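hey m, so remember when u said the tokens were messed up on ur end? i reran from scratch. heres the input so u can diff it against urs
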Amino acid sequence: ENNEYKDLVKEEKERILEIYEEVFDHKSFTGRSGTFYGYEGLGSIYWHMVSKLLLATQETYFRALKEGADIVYTSKIKDHYYEIKAGIGLYKSPDLYGAFPTDAYSHTPENGGVKQPGLTGQVKEDVISRLGELGVRIENGAINFDSTLLNKDEILTKNAEFEYYSLKGEKMQLRLKAGQIALTLCQVPVVYNFSDLNQISIKLRNGNNIEFQCNSIDKDLSSSIFSREGEIELIEVSIKNSQ
């Protein structure tokens, strides 16, 4: 073994590490809290990462459907999706979560409840995932409805009132029947009906109706919804029960 440069290599290595640390000052970056271990670091659950996994699983599910994957595989992906979702703080008790489950927190350390409240990036992922669950898909600027990922337990078993706010900020109520489910898209109410056909009926504010014999809204009307022009009063989506 040639030891001629051994001491120089060791000395240079240590000097390089010193320069590297002088530049990046890693010891000053132990987490946003200023404390690394036990608060924000090893052993912590990062809720944003869990929500990213949820969204990635949903994207995999819809990609598998588009590619014509066997129902055995898509069903397994769907099961995994809801298993991941069940682990998110929203579905835990306050005692287990360590706070109000509806509040967004950064992370949970190994030895305690959630820490660091605030509007984290998790919220964005959860909103996107929720739209996908409810069947809202945007493709090439057009709104599509695909209810295959919808949790059927969310479908109403009895009549109910659906409350939402109009584009004018007015509190509105919509009477729903058993077997329906409703949501809003850019403050336009959307009601799902499960039947023996795929169809969309759009009620305009001028009193006219537009119908599509499919589960897709054309680009022009989709653009009107995205722009919140107020042209559309209600969207009723009929979806085949097999979906």
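this time it looks ok to me. The chain has six helices and 13 strands. if urs says something different then somethings off w ur setup not the seq
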